[in-house]
Inverse folding.
């Protein structure tokens, strides 16, 4: 075979198929032994090519000028690197190349990465021993230098070298064997390299092999347009990871950001996180699936699913049912919030009976659980009573054809003004001071309570409200400014008359002895009831036994009257503000009482709903009917007193208590 220029060096490929030829003309050509001809000229320059060698099965390496060049005969990729001297000899030995020439001898990796430099003088030739542990070089001075090749045994350096050579499998194998580099870190570096060359699949494989599942999920998210089933792959990655916390969080974040409700539900099903699955169905108003989870997975849900069911009911507008489930879940704050909002909304719609009832339901629930919140149970009861009273007042102002007994309406308006409006103790949305004072003035005029009429109009002037009934004021001015004693509340403990509008008292109680006025909650007149308590050392159960014991001699009211007189003496001896204290009775007095005349309010919780919890304490409250001929009933649910006949009629008519609406048919009406 003829060639056009002198051949300076040649080298066979590893498989013996190709012979690389280095020409003095600057060409590098390939001779194919199979075809028995020169098949290609792979390089051409203006300087002689002094040496040629194969660095791998398909890559030729050759030297010209001060460059070392590489050519892949399969990929047909050419690259060149400046080595600082003209190479005369290239030797391949195992995993590295030995390059020598004018300027020294250096060892490089098969992809031209520097490993070490052997000599700095001119080297005409070099050769490695077959086992690769010695390197012999011939110098320009005529010397032969033998170098021992020893390995540093530095795995970190070796791993870094493998990384530079992109020999990732060997780097991972050495990292796993020596533990010098975290596999996840290595996988991340390989993935970053793969992303640089835009090989997404290789990057994903690198992350998977290093168990960096979070990065795989992020890779799928950012390149989801290249994967038709990327959501399914994410679910599979979660499964492979064993539902690791950080992997699960990453998958959830991807589905949430993408609004992928379906796959997010599948994820929760796979991880058996039924609480979050239930919350997901609730947020998307998938009531059918939510109810299914509540029924089938009740034992696995927080609080038995009561909180979730409450949220569902709220979103469906079923607030009263939601209230019960909030209580079951122990979320008294949410239960309180929902009932306060219901009550306020009802008051704004002028549905004052409903507003009262919602507050009562809340107070009852809190009382049963003995919980003290921002508004205590007693205040909630009072606010409920205010709405109950104002419903009468409002109807009398807006419904002219609804008939009310004047005295009942007078008592309701006076009680409401004293408790709610005048002292501002129980702020209630929707209650109009104009309506309250106008109703009170009108009914007071009808019943000849002229002094009260004047007080009402004075109060209206204080609030800069024009008098609604000028004729009423004119008529009352023509009469004496005193109130008809028949309409004034009388204290059955001390016998004192009290004004309809109280000036000094801060509650519904006698201004002389401090005894609370116990009213019928239908017509609101004062009932002949006096509160007493057993003396210290007598427990409630013993007191009850003494009262109900029929063998004891019942001595009417004689002994009890003596106790009243004694209690009044104690009141008059108290200096300053009147502080109410129940009448204290001993065992003899208790035994003398007729059980029919005694009413008992049990201490239902530690936070009793007594009007003054500090003075009444945690014991039962006892009341004596001083006029047995007047029948009295006590609702066992809300602890309000009524005239017995009126109460029974209302219960039969409405199937419940007029105030709390509880069904109490067949229950004891509070007698001991």
């Amino acid at each position: 075979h003829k060639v056009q220029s002198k051949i300076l060096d040649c080298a066979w490929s590893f498989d013996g198929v190709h012979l690389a030829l280095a020409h003095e003309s600057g060409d590098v050509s390939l001779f194919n032994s199979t075809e028995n001809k020169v098949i290609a000229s792979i390089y051409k320059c203006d300087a002689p090519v002094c040496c040629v060698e194969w660095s791998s099965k398909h890559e030729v390496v050759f030297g010209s000028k001060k460059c070392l060049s590489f050519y892949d005969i399969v990929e047909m990729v050419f690259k060149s690197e400046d080595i600082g001297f003209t190479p005369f000899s290239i030797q391949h030995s195992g995993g590295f190349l030995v390059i020598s020439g004018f300027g020294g001898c250096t060892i490089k990796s098969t992809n031209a990465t520097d490993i070490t430099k052997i000599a700095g003088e001119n080297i005409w030739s070099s050769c490695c021993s077959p086992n690769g542990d010695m390197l012999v070089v011939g110098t320009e001075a005529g010397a032969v230098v033998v170098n021992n090749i020893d390995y540093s045994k530095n795995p970190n350096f070796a791993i870094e070298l493998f990384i530079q050579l992109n020999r990732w499998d060997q780097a991972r194998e050495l990292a796993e064997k020596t533990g010098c580099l975290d596999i996840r870190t290595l996988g991340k570096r390989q993935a970053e390299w793969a992303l640089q060359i835009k090989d997404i699949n290789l990057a994903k494989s690198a992350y998977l092999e290093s168990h960096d599942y979070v990065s795989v999920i992020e890779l799928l998210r950012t390149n989801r347009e290249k994967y038709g089933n990327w959501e399914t792959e994410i679910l599979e990655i979660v499964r492979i990871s064993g539902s690791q916390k950080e992997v699960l969080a990453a998958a959830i974040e991807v589905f949430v950001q993408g609004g992928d409700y379906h796959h997010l539900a599948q994820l929760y099903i796979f991880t058996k996180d039924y609480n979050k699955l239930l919350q997901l169905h609730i947020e998307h108003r998938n009531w059918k699936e939510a109810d299914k989870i509540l029924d089938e997975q009740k034992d696995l849900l927080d609080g038995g699913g009561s909180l979730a069911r409450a949220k569902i009911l709220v979103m469906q507008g079923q607030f009263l049912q939601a209230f019960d489930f909030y209580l079951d879940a122990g979320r008294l704050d949410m239960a309180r919030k929902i009932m306060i909002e219901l009550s306020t909304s009802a008051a704004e719609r002028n549905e004052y009976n409903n507003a009262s009832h919602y507050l009562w339901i809340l107070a009852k629930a809190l009382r049963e659980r003995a919980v003290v919140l921002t508004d205590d149970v007693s205040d909630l009861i009072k606010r409920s009573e205010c709405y109950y009273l104002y419903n009468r007042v409002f109807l009398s102002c807006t419904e002219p054809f609804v008939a009310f007994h004047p005295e009942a309406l007078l008592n309701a308006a006076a009680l409401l003004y004293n408790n709610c409006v005048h002292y501002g103790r129980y702020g209630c949305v929707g209650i109009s001071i104009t309506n309250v004072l106008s109703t009170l003035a009108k009914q007071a005029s009808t019943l000849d309570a002229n002094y009260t009429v004047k007080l009402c109009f004075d109060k209206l002037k204080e609030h800069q409200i024009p008098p609604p009934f000028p004729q009423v004021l004119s008529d009352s001015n023509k009469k004496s400014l005193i109130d008809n004693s028949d309409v004034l509340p009388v204290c059955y403990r001390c016998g004192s008359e009290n004004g309809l509008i109280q000036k000094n008292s801060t509650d519904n109680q006698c201004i002389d002895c401090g005894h609370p006025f116990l009213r019928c909650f239908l017509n609101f007149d004062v009932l002949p009831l006096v509160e007493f308590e057993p003396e210290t050392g007598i427990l409630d159960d013993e007191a009850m036994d003494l009262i109900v014991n029929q063998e004891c001699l019942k001595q009417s009211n004689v002994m009890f009257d003596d106790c009243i007189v004694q209690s009044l003496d104690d009141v008059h001896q108290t200096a300053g503000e009147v502080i109410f204290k129940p009448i204290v009775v001993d065992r003899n007095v208790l035994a003398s009482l007729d059980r029919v005349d005694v009413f008992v309010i049990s201490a239902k919780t530690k936070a009793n709903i007594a009007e003054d919890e500090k003075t009444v304490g945690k014991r039962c409250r006892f009341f004596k009917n001083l006029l047995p001929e007047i029948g009295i009933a006590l609702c066992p649910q809300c602890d309000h007193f009524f005239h017995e006949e009126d109460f029974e009629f209302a219960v039969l008519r409405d199937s419940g208590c007029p105030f709390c609406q509880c069904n109490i048919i067949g229950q004891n009406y509070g007698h001991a």
Remarks:
- The chain has a mean pLDDT of 80.
- The radius of gyration is 50 Å.
- The longest helix spans residues 377-398.
- The domain at 331-487 is CATH 1.25.40 (Serine Threonine Protein Phosphatase 5, Tetratricopeptide repeat).
